[in-house]
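Predict the 3D structure for this chain.
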Amino acid sequence: MPHKGKAVIAKVKELCPEFEFRQMMIDPPVPFNAKQFAKRKERFYADADIALSISAHEGNSYFLLDALAMGVQVVGTDVGLVPQIPRTLCKKMQWEKAFQSPEYVAEALRRAWRHRPDPDDVRAWYNATSGRLTYAAKMTGVADDLIRKACWREGEVGGGGG
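Done. Predicted structure below.
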């Protein structure tokens, strides 16, 4: 089974002629110019209503993060970042069903279209949860947890003092 849903999306396109599908393909300019690249991405997301992601596994998807930052609703499989996004901003699909049933994906798209969130709400959630300060605080918490666990284990084994 493929890990990305390109074959599924091709079938969903046929089932959903009311939607226009565009694949995210923004090649960096050569020679690389960060401002031009950012402008291309910004135009892509400004024209989008829904970001569709079908994957069997995903890390921290920059595609979805960029979409959320631009106020675009997400329809995605329940892997990677998607489970963390509130249901009011994201239509979540079971990845197994998404790969087996283009009809399931088509219905998720139609539900998402009927219940679109306000783009400002999408951006506000992104800014509240994905900002640098939030990230720094989360990483500090992770480091503190690791230190506490290491100290506990050290004390448990009989080391660590005295």
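The two ends are 57 Å apart (CA to CA).
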